[in-house]
Amino acid sequence: MEEPENLAVVPPSCEAGPCGNSCVFCYIRQNPPEVLREHGGNVDTTRHDTLNDPHLEERVERARDRYPDLRLRIVDTAGNVGIDEGRVESLAAAGIDEVQISLHTTVPETRKKLMGNPNADELLELLPKFEDVGIDVIADLVLTPGYNLRELPRTCEDLETMGARQVRVFPVGGTDLARGFRFPTRRELEWMRETSRRLDCELNIEVIPSPTIDALLGEPAFDPPDLPEPDFEAVIVVGELAAPIFEPAVRELENVELLVVKNRVFGGVIGASSLLTAKDVLREIERYEPRTEFPVLILPDAMFSPDGRTLDGWSREELVGKLAALGYTVVTCRKPEEVAKVLASPSPW
After folding, report:
1. In the chain, alpha helices (H)
2. Looking at the domain 7-216, which fold is it?
3. What is the pTM assigned to this prediction?
4. Is 266 helix (H, G, I), strand (E, B) or coil?
């Protein structure tokens, strides 16, 4: 989703406490063992909530003093801990502009059930307070069949009256280890997209369906990039959700192969390129038969964490070294424009 250029997110400190929830769809419970840090992976299963940070206001004040022209946002919060009217006022006084809340529904009983928290309904009464003190609310709704899916219209209507600025609609996702809920059907995905668009037109609040919905429907969430024909063999690696974007772009290119990697480590409906593991990439590369010596292999840079590791614990150097031993010249790209630049460059030999 597009964000304003002057946006800055204020992260929690290392002392942020737990979220206090046990959400039905919590990703922490769905991680396969091989990606957990205790088994050599790179996934941290610590639950935290930005509002449960005793130093949050201090961090906001420092950010405001240093960057007076930026819009400051709080994310990674469900709003079920560390929040009351006084806290909302103190955040406004510190200089926060907006808060992005994992809200999911405005139906009290559903929110308590979905989040596994008997106090999850208390936030709903506080929401109008944010508008009173000048803090914009962005409400994230993870629509889960059997729980809050059909409550989308009511929730958006309620949020309009509560003064929220924007609603972001996501389909629930998960791995093969998901329990207690099911993934949306194609018809349900189509319904949430069309309903979101209708509500966006009818209500005085932005209602934005996530591009993930388009991707799960096999439709491009963004326009295909303009990719040139290289004078060398190139293999572009993407996750399943990015395939509809890149397939039209490479269709007429003779020297480019699109390698769509299915995420078998996580399974479920996990198809983002950022969640690819080294194990899955290597499986597909070892099956691929290159037409030339030393083809260029383009990996999504997003599959590596800031410290340069994949979710299953491989360092960038380890994976690139393994792929180089298989005969590939490896580059990583974060944006389609970077892919185009690589393809337009002279042959690396």
Report:
1. 56-66, 85-94, 108-115, 122-132, 152-162, 186-202, 211-216, 243-250, 278-287, 316-325, 336-344
2. TIM Barrel (3.20.20)
3. 0.88
4. coil
Predicted confidence at residue 239, as pLDDT, reads: 96
Positions in the chain short of pLDDT 70: 38-39, 45, 348-349
Q: What is the DSSP code string of 135-202?
A: -EEEEEEEE-TTTTGGGHHHHHHHHHHHT--EEEEEE----TT--S--PPPHHHHHHHHHHHHHHHHH
pLDDT value at residue 213 = 96
Phi, psi (deg, nearest 5) at residue 116: 60, 35
**Tokens 């204020």 -> residue:** 10
| 344 three-class SS | helix
Tally the C-alpha atoms within 13 A of residue 223's C-alpha that lie toward its C-beta.
Answer: 4
Cα dist from 132 to 9, 88, 136, 334, whole Å: 22, 10, 10, 40
Where exactly are the structural domains of the chain? 7-216, 234-344
Q: Which amino acid is at 80?
A: N
Q: Please, which residues bridge with residue 74 across strands?
A: 99
For the chain, give the number of residues.
349
Q: Which residue is listed with tokens 């480590």?
A: 265
pLDDT score of 38? 66
pLDDT of the residue at 349: 60
| Confidence (pLDDT) at 125 | 95
Q: What residues contact residue 195 under an 8 Å CB cut-off, 6+ apart?
A: 152, 153
